[in-house]
Amino acid sequence: MADLRNDFAGIKSPNPFWLASAPPTDKEYNVVRAFKAGWGGVVWKTLGLDPHIVNVGGPRYGAIWGADRRLLGLNNIELITDRPLEVNLQEIKSVKRDWPDRAVVTSLMVPCEEPCWEQILRQVEDTGCDGVELNFGCPHGMSERGMGAAVGQVPEYIEMVTRWAKANTRMPVIVKLTPNITDVRYPARAAHGGGADAVSLINTISSIISVDLDNFAPQPTIDGKGTHGGYCGPAVKPIALNMVADIARDPVMASLPISGIGGITTWRDAAEFITLGAGNVQVCTAAMTYGFKIIDDLVEGLEQWMDNAGHADLDAIHRRAIPNVTDWQYLNLNYTAKARIDQDSCIKCGRCHIACEDTSHQAITNMVDGERRFEVIDEECVGCNLCVNVCPVENCITMEQIPAGDMDERTGKPVSDEYGNWTMHPNNPMRDAAE
Amino acid sequence: MVDRYLEDGILDSRLGAGDYDENFGDAHPPLDAHEAMVAADRCYFCYDAPCVTACPTAIDIPKFIRQISTGNLDGSARTIFDQNILGGMCARVCPTETLCEQACVREAAEGKPVQIGLLQRHATDHAMSHGRQFYSRAAESGKSVAVIGAGPAGLACAHRLAMKGHSVVIYDARDKAGGLNEYGIATYKTVDDFAQHEVDYVTAIGGIEIVTGQGLGDDLTIDDLTTKHDAVFVGIGLSGVNALGVDGEKDEAVASAVDFISELRQAEDMAAIPVGRRVMVIGGGMTAIDVATQAHLLGAQEVTIAYRRGRDQMNASEVEQNQSASKGVNIRHWIKPVEVTKSDSGSLHVKMEYTGLSDGKLAGTGKFQTFEVDQLFTAIGQTLEAGGALAGITLDKGRIKVDDALRTSNPSVWAGGDCTAGGDDLTVTAVAQGRDAAESIHAALSA
Known about the structure:
The complex is a heterodimer.
Chain A: E1 6-8, E2 11-13, E3 17-19, H1 28-37, E4 41-47, E5 61-65, E6 71-76, H2 85-98, E7 103-108, H3 114-125, E8 131-135, H4 149-152, H5 155-168, E9 173-176, H6 185-193, E10 198-201, E11 205-207, E12 210-212, E13 217-219, E14 229-232, H7 237-249, E15 258-261, H8 267-275, E16 278-283, H9 285-290, H10 295-309, E17 337-341, H11 351-359, E18 367-368, E19 371-372, H12 386-390, E20 397-401, E21 407-408, E22 413-414
Parallel strand pairs in A: 3-4, 3-16, 4-7, 7-8, 8-9, 9-10, 10-15, 15-16
Antiparallel strand pairs in A: 1-2, 5-6, 6-14, 11-14, 12-13, 17-20, 18-19, 21-22
Helix pairs in contact in A: 3-5, 5-6, 8-10
Chain B: H1 2-6, E1 10-11, H2 17-23, H3 33-41, H4 50-54, H5 61-69, H6 73-83, H7 87-93, H8 100-103, H9 105-110, H10 116-129, E2 144-148, H11 152-163, E3 167-172, H12 180-183, H13 194-203, E4 208-212, H14 222-228, E5 231-234, E6 240-241, E7 254-256, H15 257-266, E8 275-276, E9 278-282, H16 286-297, E10 302-306, H17 318-326, E11 330-332, E12 335-342, E13 348-358, E14 361-373, E15 375-378, E16 382-383, E17 395-396, E18 399-400, E19 413-415, H18 427-446
Parallel strand pairs in B: 2-3, 2-5, 3-4, 5-19, 7-15, 9-10, 9-15, 10-11
Antiparallel strand pairs in B: 1-8, 6-16, 12-13, 13-14, 17-18
Helix pairs in contact in B: 3-5, 3-10, 5-6, 5-10, 6-10, 7-10, 11-18, 15-16, 16-17
């Protein structure tokens, strides 16, 4: 069986699945349930200074759904913990004592004044927890008070506070980044420059999830008003993957541990994050949707895939996809693929046809010899993959590489066996001199 | 009570009072809002969708289902009514398993089609129960059209003509409008007087007068009507029934299935309707299924359908056959009646001959079996019955011949529904023909 034991910035856990700092990790009760279910670690819901903050007394969440009301995206306006600091510290201490093999990291958010950080870090260190995560990410509420994303959007602040944290604790310091910026490498480099032991990302994305059309107010609606919240769940995963990869590819940060966060719902999602550079992953929305039991298949699915593929441990897959992430300009423009429709598994819904016909390249029939039939017209197919993506039957449509030397019916030329990218392309006025 | 259930003869009150309400409740209860959303989410919004092709009225099914899933129930109903103003009844009685749902790509994919019929009912019930009227009359055209028969074809025709601004008078021989919908469909398929609600809903557009108690015949002739009106539409269905053609069928214990279904539909009290303990139904269509199932629901202990050919040749759909069988009806194939005699005890002895195919043709085998029953229903097809009233109009195999525009050999007369040749005797087809005849009439009157 594949070895899933994880060492993240010196913090050990039996598997790489941590619960992210969020409602599921707000109390000992929840965290103990999570550990009993098998979660490898938790990042305790963000602590602040007393007097503790208060939350709204109305709805805190909004959502978007796919078919069958499957939750795809969740938006929240909840703030950091609304319990007294001492209560949280006592519970963290208790949990860590009872569950020594699990990772317990404490998330923190206090004002940008060094004494505040010094004070809370000392108190947290007393709990015996494994590390701290600096919450520079929450885009709502706390950011209005100069904390959370308000810090995370200014690299100089990130570096300054990270430096304070490192100066005031011996615990590993993880800096949690906000995606509400233009280029995540700048805040990540700032954290790195401030001495962070690791970064974690992404925090939630600023969002208005929906508008109540009866009352003309954003949702969730509090006494007739709404405000932007933080967006998370399966819908944000692609954004998170890209940001994780951006940091992992940055030569300056190649060895900086990354805790991957953002829409992780299945073992496959987790594996993808790890291959793009995440040293472990944090999960929240999936647990909030289905409960802690999803840890079973997160662990077993990952193990099974690793066993089947012959990957012995997490190091065997860590960063494995990074060499294959490149810039568009280096993609091989001579690579040629065409869609292929398996007629046996085709259910004749026609969505490939209409997608191609209305919005793309008119490369799929809907009628052949008077019969309803969907076939790829190689002369028109650019291999764009849209048909694959809209087909309701998995693997009914696949993309097939046209071997070098074979004719591309669209261009009327044989497929080249040479690598040729945009930097070398004759249409590129800036092309490198190839000769 | 149990004694009466087991007692031979044709008796009323075979069941307890509460049993009737349960037995004749809605056969396919409507979807609630959650069920409708789940069902609607399964639709793939196919291009050139096979379900639409399979629908005789060509309702834009992917569109109306998408409208359900986006919470636009009014729009969904309108999409249905645009093509089929009797979409509410069709949602209840269409053999969807052989039409739209058979064509559904999810039937191909998983053997479980989208529940198109129930979704159609969800949308149309919403609109009708909220009194949503989507159509209004065009300016008065000054033209008048007679519609004979207030069944599905006649109502659909009248509604479309009214939309075009024509004045319509519907004549119907019976006491109530609705035709087959009111008199010919099993009670549990259309509960709560739905057929009459639908007549009201359809005629609410205005410009439609319904005259009941006047059918084509002595009081009403095609000549009179073509004189009085600018055009005539005939949608009189098939009111005659075929005879078995065997000795003994005149016995009072032998009844027409059509009449029995009609009696049940109009009954105030199901317990008052007498039914045999042992009931046999001769036939293989929906009428046979409907009468057999309802006889059983009335308390007939043993109900047998006897059909002279095999299961695959039955006009009743497989789903209907299975539902009937699941309610306890026994379906016998390859068997036909040859003689009915009265026994001393008052029961009927139905002598049956086993049949088979000989050179591809149905033939008797010379082997016989006699069944003892209390009541025998015939459901072996219906015929066009208008006597001399249709004189001058060309028939084809006993039904009215129409051209592609639903026009008869009399240029002032159009026809549609079961009374015309070449149809498939479905409510939904009658609606399509009524609607299309109205368009044809409108084109002729506007020329």
